[in-house]
Design goal:
This protein has one helix at residues 3-8, and strands at 22-25, 28-32, 37-47, 53-61, 66-73, 77-79, 98-101, 104-107, 110-115, 118-123. It has 135 residues and is mainly beta.
């Protein structure tokens, strides 16, 4: 993917060619006052200066006031996943937010999360995304 193409699609993974001193994370906030739920999920990747990288999902629980950082091998990270990831080609999003970390998937219309203390599947509506203007 070219950097110009990434500018046109700011919500997709930007670090395809980055392998040193790089961090990219996404913030997914889930709030339901009626159910007393306030969660933030932060999936992403991190590389140190030597090129050692890992994927992660950080789980913040605003009700329990806890934070847990789950690490995954960098090989467990995929963006704009290909059909080989088990997804039908029609569900592969090459221009927007769509990443897989381990057994979890985060995308523009929802997320499926599998962590030791949490398993959930959500559909999103009324999303607030990063503002983008052509100029």
């Amino acid at each position: 993917m070219s950097s110009i193409s990434n500018v046109l699609h700011p919500s997709r993974f930007q670090g395809e060619t980055k392998k040193r001193s790089y961090f990219e994370g996404y913030y997914v906030k889930i709030v339901d006052a009626e159910q007393d739920i306030a969660l933030a999920l932060i999936p992403g990747v991190s590389y140190d200066a030597d090129g050692n990288g890992h994927a992660f999902i950080q789980l913040l629980d605003g009700v329990a006031e806890t934070a847990v950082y789950h690490t995954f091998p960098i090989e467990d990270f995929a963006f704009a996943p290909e059909a080989s990831s088990g997804l039908p080609a029609s569900r592969v999003n090459k221009t927007g937010f769509d990443i897989i970390i381990g057994e979890s998937r985060f995308h523009e219309s929802g997320c499926e999360v599998v962590l030791p203390a949490l398993s959930l599947s959500l559909s999103f509506r009324g999303n607030l995304t990063w503002p983008w203007k052509w100029w």
